[in-house]
Amino acid sequence: MKIIITILTLLIANFAFSQKMKQRAADKLFNNREYFKCVEMYDELANKAVSGHSKGNWENVEKAAECHFHLFRMKESTLYYEQLDIKNKLDEHDRIHYIDALRFAEKYGKSISVARESSNLFAENKFFKRIVAEQDQFNNLFADSAFYRVKETDVNSGKGDFSPTYFNNSIIFASKALNTGFITPKYGWDNDYYINMMQSTFGEDSVLSKPKILKDQFISKAHDGPVSFNKDGTEMIITKNTVGKNKGQKVIVLSLYFSSLTNGEWSELKAFEFNNPAYDVGHGVLSDDGQKLYFVSNKPGGFGESDIYVSEKMGNSWSEPKNMGPTINTERKEMFPFVQEDILYFASNGHFGLGGLDIFEANIDGSSKPHNIGYPVNSANDDFSLIFDKSGRIGFLSSNREGNIDRIYHVTKRKLNVNLIVDVFEKYKELEPVANQVVLIKNLTTQELDSVTTDAQGQLNTEIKINNEYRIYTKKSEFILLKEASVNTNDIRKDSTFHAELVLKPTTIIIHLRVVEKKTGKIIPQATTTITDYDLKKDTTIITNEEGMVTIKVDRNKVLWAHGSKKGFIDADVSFNTSNEIDKVIDIELALNPIRKGQKFKLENIFYDLNKSTLREESKSSLDKLSTFLLDNDLRIELSAHTDSRGSSSYNQRLSQRRAQSCVDYLKKKGVLSKNMRAKGYGEYKLVNRCKNGVKCSEEEHQENRRTEVKILEVN
User: Fold this and answer.
1) Is pLDDT above 90 for 192?
2) Could you check whether 418-502 and 507-594 share the same CATH topology?
């Protein structure tokens, strides 16, 4: 019996020791990210906790969930996370992966519920907030489905192929297809071969040839790729695994290397000067002009797990990398950038999407909110490394949508037609189209300025870009634009036409001034006309034509005076305003009476300071015209001044006499002989209305009595 007990004790001790060794081995592999090698160990260890074993450790359930997650075994991962959820053992990191796993499995409703609960528990987590806030946009991710066609290519090995890039008449891509025979033939993360670079050439009808492995600078004893090239295919940027150190521990990091093509040979690799042994620097791509390098890094101080950075070329070196900011980067992963003209394509699992990595597009300067390209380019799995050819409509992408294995897919994008129609009008009684008018279209996103001319109907039709904002305006002499137009093409996902209307309001108007004889209506040719702007102290003088007509263009919204004179006729004045906003022409008629003895007329626009006889400056224009009239016609006149009834009669009499004399004195200075003028003040004795003493009158009625008159005494 003692022997049996001893044997059982040894077996139990041996089993316990075995379990401890398994735990240590699993933890070591997990810490080294060798998930394939430790996943079965954690399955066994996790089942103890799930089954209620007294020595079960829920940390093993968490690690089993994460192992399956990294191996894209989302069904198993989700089951473990559900058990953690039941036991209320999900931490913030677990919840992120739980939501990801649910979305991979297309369990979107459940993922929203978990995200809402997580957002309440971790109020500062932007990822949880974004999933909840943008859930209503889910259907929008399918809005572009008619514009894209996605088809698997023939280059796939079924073992993992991704990140294609164009190079001359071929594509070069990363692949796990081959065992290159190095000491460590497989990668512990997923038990696949290390990444190598393959090349496939385009043949007739763009058919790709059987891939061939690239050697020399493209191959090493670790992961090699992805790779990209400049526009001419003479410069290469390749991502490679290198050994580094972080907090004293040996780590594997991504690093960027450059190589140049000379005489058909690639030069020795040159390290990017901002590589760092403590963090990743990879996935490098150049802008179209080769002056900017976009890459991915998880360097400290970023916004998330990995961010996109940009560095500018400065001679033979590069500027300090600049993070592209929180509009592009999130608290999670942004990876695999690709640049075409002013558009940045990248993959992210932080922005709202269908699940896993989704592909987004944004303005290259990071000024616009990234747009999810949607289905079928994106799926519930990882979708990344989208590239396009020069047309921007044909390209490739990488995805593990089939069996969780990375494959390269061909993408065809139907061209999106976005047009802008602009109508330009002049504002009169009816809106009138403006032909051959230059319209300025300012792209506020790129700062480009285009000018397009309207057709005979005053309209233009031009193509504009998506994901841009535009300012539309025009300029024309003697017109003001009532309102500029604006167009925003962000989030446009279908063929669209934008309409804008520009209305020009005229600032001038045409005056047709006709001078006629008052009684007969006969035209008076060769009469002198003057248009006076008292605000600007400006006179414009024109002689009437044979039809007694003058045409002049004046500013709108003015009060002006028209004056007409002709030898043998009494001058005439008329006030008019140009506030008319619907007509092009104002017709004015000046009727002149032939000069006869005894005729009397009012002299307009004669002004004095209050209770004074001093002529104000604006009075002199009318007196100048009167002097010309008197000199041309050799007349003897009485120039009289009148007041209203307010004040004493004697005072008004004296004031009016002084004012009449002021006018006569001014006319003398203009050459009119004293013998031909008589100054006469009538005070309030010749009122023209009812406003005598004791009668309540308006200021306008009193003004009628305050006047200066001319009476013709003799025609010499």
Assistant:
1) no
2) yes
Give the model's confidence band at 8: pLDDT under 50 very low, under 70 low, under 90 confident, else very high. Answer: very low
Q: What SS3 class is residue 322?
A: strand
- Predicted confidence at residue 342, as pLDDT, reads 86
Give 474-498 pLDDT, tens digit per residue: 999 999 999 999 999 987 877 899 9
Task: Return the CATH number of 596-716, one of 3.90.76.10, 2.60.40.10, 3.30.1330.60, 3.30.365.10.
Answer: 3.30.1330.60
- Check whether 469 has a pLDDT greater than 80: yes
What mean pLDDT comes out for the span 90-116? 89
| Domain-wise residue ranges, the chain | 23-133, 145-413, 418-502, 507-594, 596-716
Query: What's this model's pTM, rounded to 2 decimal places?
Result: 0.61
**Both tokens of residue 113?**
């519920």
**28-81: pLDDT as tens digits:** 888 877 888 888 888 888 888 888 776 678 888 888 888 888 888 888 989 999
- pLDDT at position 54 is 61
Quote the CA–CA distance of 532 and 548 in Å, as a whole number: 19
In degrees rounded to 5, what are phi and psi of residue 206?
Answer: 60, 25
- DSSP class of residue 304? S
Do the Cβ atoms of 452 and 439 come closer than 8 Å?
yes
Q: Is 1 helix (H, G, I), strand (E, B) or coil?
A: coil
Helix axes 2-31, 35-50, angle to 10 degrees: 130
- CATH class, domain 507-594, is mainly beta
Give dist(CA 665, CA 683) in Å, integer.
19
What's the token pair of residue 417?
Answer: 């037609």
Q: Reading across the β-sheet that carries 334-340, which strands appear in turn? A: 334-340, 343-348, 358-363, 371-372
Q: Domain 145-413 is in which class?
A: mainly beta
Side-chain-facing half-sphere of 68: CA atoms under 13 Å: 25
Report the pLDDT value the prediction gives residue 178, as an integer from 0 to 100.
67
Residues 6 or more apart in contact with residue 628 via CB below 8 angstroms: 565
Supply the pLDDT for residue 185: 52
**Nearest by Cα to 524 from 575, 596, 589:** 589
The topology under which CATH files domain 418-502 is: Immunoglobulin-like (2.60.40)
Confidence of residue 450 (pLDDT cuts 50, 70, 90): very high
Tell which residue, 227, 161, 178, has the closest CA to residue 397. Answer: 161
Average pLDDT on 337-363 reads 93
Residue in 413, 402, 401, 307 with CA at minimum distance from that of residue 354: 401
Task: Give the model's confidence band at 247: pLDDT under 50 very low, under 70 low, under 90 confident, else very high.
Answer: low
* 635-642, strands of its sheet edge to edge: 600-602, 707-715, 635-642, 677-683
Task: Tell whether the torsion through CA atoms of 352, 353, 354 and 356 is positive or negative.
Answer: negative
DSSP structural state of residue 375 = T
Residues forming a β-bridge with 586:
511
Given 1.20.120.1770, 1.25.40.10, 3.90.850.10, 3.40.50.720, which CATH number is that of 23-133? 1.25.40.10
C-alpha span between 316 and 303 (Å, rounded): 29
Per-residue HEC secondary structure of 331-389 comes to CCEEEEEEEECCEEEEEECCCCCCCCCEEEEEECCCCCCCEECCCCCCCCCCEEEEEEC
Residue 190 has pLDDT above 60, yes or no: no
CA-to-CA dists, residue 38 to 63, 70, 97, 222, 487, angstroms: 10, 12, 19, 21, 56
- Alpha-carbon distance of 75 to 97, in angstroms, equals 13
* 357-415 pLDDT, tens digit each: 999 999 888 777 898 999 999 999 999 999 999 888 899 999 999 988 999 999 998 88
State the amino acid at position 405 in one-letter form. Answer: I
Q: What is the pLDDT of residues 655-677, one digit of tens each?
A: 999 999 999 999 999 999 999 99
Q: Identify any residues that bridge with 201 across adjacent strands, giving them in sequence order.
A: 170
Q: Which residues contact 403 (CB under 8 A, 6 or more apart)?
A: none
Distance CA 577, CA 364 (A): 55
Nearest in space to 336 (alpha carbons), one of 199, 190, 228: 228
